[in-house]
Design brief:
The protein is mostly helical and 197 residues long. It has one domain. Helix content is 71%, strand content 0%. Helix 3 packs antiparallel against helix 8 and helix 4 packs across helix 7. The longest helix has 30 residues. It is globular, with a radius of gyration of 18 Å.
Length: 197
């Protein structure tokens, strides 16, 4: 069922060589929208990492223990979305109940996590690549950390370019897209070091 790549290699590859955001361009909406400040970027990144790692494991179990044995594989997209949405809702309720202050800080980020296509992409990739449970969790955790690294880096660069002499036509979204493109190119330099499939 699984590939011969170890979970440790998958973990580090998901952060650097196959970054879900900068190599696969998944999760770019919140990446561009929230990356104005480092603090908010790290808050969203931490929440995305937690949800991505947990739902990768949950979706692996649901797919291989429920959908495959009962020949319900055709429902995988719906089931993956339901698992992600339900988990995010559960996390939001627990945070609201046990840490109201944290809920206020993450309140705007939690709904964004449900519709983050990077989390959906990780769930699909772990099925396509036929990862074992440990490989799936390593991929989810590494993918979340890679996403966090990318959004925090973009936030830092955006804060530096706020007062920089940027050409008039590139001010705002223009320089942000150029910066994101250059970041993607730098991460693509690592591609090929580890083959994920």
């Amino acid at each position: 069922m699984g590939t011969p790549v170890s979970p440790g290699v998958i973990f580090f590859a998901a952060i650097f060589t196959n970054n879900i955001l900068l190599s696969n361009f998944l999760g770019t909406c919140s990446f561009l929208a929230i990356s104005r400040e480092i603090r908010s970027s790290l808050g969203l990144g931490a929440a995305v990492t937690f949800v991505m790692a947990a739902t990768a494991g949950l979706n692996h179990l649901v797919y291989y223990k429920l959908l495959v044995p009962f020949d319900l594989v055709h429902l995988r997209y719906i089931v993956i979305i339901v698992v992600i949405a339900a988990f995010v809702q559960l996390v939001e309720m627990l945070i609201e109940r046990y840490s109201p202050a944290l809920h206020v800080v993450l309140g705007v980020f939690l709904p964004l996590i449900t519709v983050n296509c990077a989390i959906f992409g990780v769930a699909l990739f772990l099925i396509i690549r036929e990862y074992s449970f440990l490989q799936a969790v390593a991929y989810g955790f590494g993918g979340g950390l890679g996403w966090t690294l990318a959004i925090a880096a973009l936030a830092g660069i955006r804060q530096k370019t706020k007062n920089a002499p940027v050409p008039k036509g590139l001010v705002g979204p223009g320089i942000t897209l150029v910066t994101a493109g250059l970041m993607a190119l730098s991460f693509m330099a690592f591609s090929g070091m580890v083959q994920m499939q």
